[in-house]
Specification:
heterodimer; A: about 110 residues; mainly beta; five-stranded antiparallel sheet; 11 strands; B: about 120 residues; seven-stranded mixed sheet; four-stranded antiparallel sheet
Chain lengths: ~110, ~120
Amino acid sequence: SQQGEEDPQALSIQEGENATMNCSYKTSINNLQWYRQNSGRGLVHLILIRSNEREKHSGRLRVTLDTSKKSSSLLITASRAADTASYFCATGNYTGANSKLTFGKGITLSVRP
Amino acid sequence: DAGVIQSPRHEVTEMGQEVTLRCKPISGHNSLFWYRQTMMRGLELLIYFNNNVPIDDSGMPEDRFSAKMPNASFSTLKIQPSEPRDSAVYFCASSFLHGGQGMGQPQHFGDGTRLSIL
């Protein structure tokens, strides 16, 4: 079953605008990660935020985590056509020796030049 | 640095045939993951290994699927016999996990094998 669910499912914006994508999850987590997938390629890790962190930045990316609401958001500022891709959130819940991620179904982002 | 290498990139075969997918993880990584991606079900974890030992295979669909990791630099996912519903993109990913402390690390994905069963 899916742990993370992204919202919206698809997003289309103009180059230069900001893109905000949301992720909600159901059970407690150790960390939450965001990945990007370009068409025909594997997923690429973007950013990881731990359960005791509230906000993290990496270049044009800003991720927030609200564990009380079980939600996260990914903000891409000043979007570029090259940001066109699918974006996935993945939740990490580690129990003993079992360390795995559960991925959502992804958000398709289209950035129009 | 070489990333995760998967082969073949594409595989088209007839129902009933045996299919073997291969993966070479990033050198130094101690965990390896096999995923399946379809439009309907998204990205599903099939099995993962830590230090070459299978830790969680609860995502393996049925006995037709098997996975091995004979050493730290190679893993295979085998489907025998294959069925049309196995058609999907299969990804291998690797990571370095710190001794079950729950630290979590990013996973590095290969570019996948696109499998079509006719």
